[in-house]
Amino acid sequence: MTLNIFKALKAGTKRDLRGLWQKVAAGIALFIMGFQVYVNIIGTWDPFIHAVVFMGLMLSLLFLLQSPSPKHSDALPIIDVFFCIFMLLFSLYMWLERERFITRFPLVDALNFLDISFGLVVVAAIFEAMRRTLGAGLTIVVTVILFYVFLGHFIEGPFYHRPIDLETFLDHLVFTINGVGGVPMRVAATYVFVFVTLGAFLEASGGGDFFYKFANSIAGGYAGGPAKVAVISSAAFGTISGSPTADVATTGAFTIPLMKRMGYSPIFAGAVETTASTGGALLPPIMGTAAFLMVEFTGTPYREIVIASVIPALIYYFGCFMQVHFRSLKENLIGLPREELPHFGDAFRDRGEFLVPLGLLIFLILKGYTPTLAGLVCLALTVPISWLRKDARMDVERILQTMLLSVNRLAPLIAACAAAGLVVGGLNITGLASKFITLIGTIAGGNALLALVLAAGVLLLLGMGMPLPVVYILGASLIAPVLTGVGIPTFRAHLFIVFYSALSAITPPVAVAAYTAAGIAGADPMAIGWQAVKLGVAGFVVPFVFAFYPAIMLQGSFLEILWITGTTILGILFWTAAVEGYFFWGKVGILPRLGLVLAGILLIIPGGKTDLIGLTIGIVLLLPKIKERGGKV
Questions:
Q1: 25, 175, 521, 595: which has the highest count of C-beta atoms within 10 A?
Q2: How many independent structural domains does the chain possess?
Q3: C-alpha distances in angstroms, 130 versus 169, 398, 466, 551?
């Protein structure tokens, strides 16, 4: 029975439209691009109206682009045409009625017949869009919450809530900022739209090729070169994509086959790419949707989030890189032949101009400009820069294709944000959010460490069936109040949620990035996921460090920053050696590996005594290997 439900809710596939409908889809996509650029530059639209109009336009396009079932079919059923036209009409209706919706008192002024009619179909459209793009996981969660909204008053005990009628439900979830037009969709309509579009234009003008050549030139010839190239190129590409699955699909198409050719197992090759690509959602300057949502939820300037994330993100990649290095030494995996390596200078000579918009983006963000303005300025600069080289030149046709690519990439994310609006609205209208917060807070009992462990577990559990932005939104609504209640500052609590929301992409059983890598590597996605967890061990540790010690987020004196960062890096180094059973000077036995785990824990826990004990244990365990090799790596 359960399997049948999951099969029925399975996501659809992309359509290859032809003829009239291809032109209709292209027309809608180009209209969305023009509308979005206009609104984000002019900036005079009411945020709620902008969000719901944008949602309607995007969902209308989604029903043309995404088939309703996994059985690939390019035919367009009547239900898809209906939803497409209806969502366009909904956008038009919200624009025409904008003054009424801006000035009305929600839940006081009654909805009219058209409001209720549109509201019902919009909820159905969001549900179907979510089902065909995101599959069973989130669909089941939303279904349960909707049942609870209408039937929760029959439940006795702490989960009882007052009866909620249909008009109240639609008013709250569709026509106020507490539902589908709330923070998730506002972020998607501003920050996310701009940066997904910027990433697509940078990629189209040669960004991916530049990063791959750059990484190959500096790491390809060393031990385990192809895997190190995957780590570096995925990290670099992640700075413009911020999407684990997009990163895997783009860089993994080159790096995974190369790693397999040089002797890595398909599982390890897929896991390296999965882990490295997942870090793209944590690495500045473009950290993915969750970081932009954090701006809205906390009111923290994006610049501060970027600065605070630099060292934690780099430590994440350090842990992954060192495990790759130790695995390469252990299995004697050599680098690429010299004749296959690009010269370091060639990467900059061939595509160096690509760094100009990226550098300008970092400069504008650090100077305090809004992410939207900074992204739009860099987007405007990308096209003329591409004209400097004939092979990268973006003509009108290429610009239009890139615009269509941007909108195509956005469509599933918009479905996720709309679904998140339903979830958050349902949690709030029933009071379930506050009940959950009370429950977790009671279990934690005021203990900050226990609260963080519970938070990490809940976030990873949520990530099994939901995309990153939805996991963060639920975490911000349900987990953040618990963490702040036990004394963890708001900024650190939300950044903790950002990290663990991203890590859900590599955590089995539903590790979305691992499934993408599995298709390229030809390996079991579950096995790739578990190996990726080992490679990403630093990512699971660092959030606990900055939750208690903000020096690792560049907050504190120079000596504090140096000390906390240094001991954390050394602790992660010992852990990676323990995981791989190998250090620079040779293999490490079972008992020394357990000792290195203990040494790593003591070093990661800041404090003079624990650091000294951890360092001493590590040196004593590794000293025989150092003497054996004469200190040579």
A1: 521
A2: 2
A3: 19, 30, 10, 40
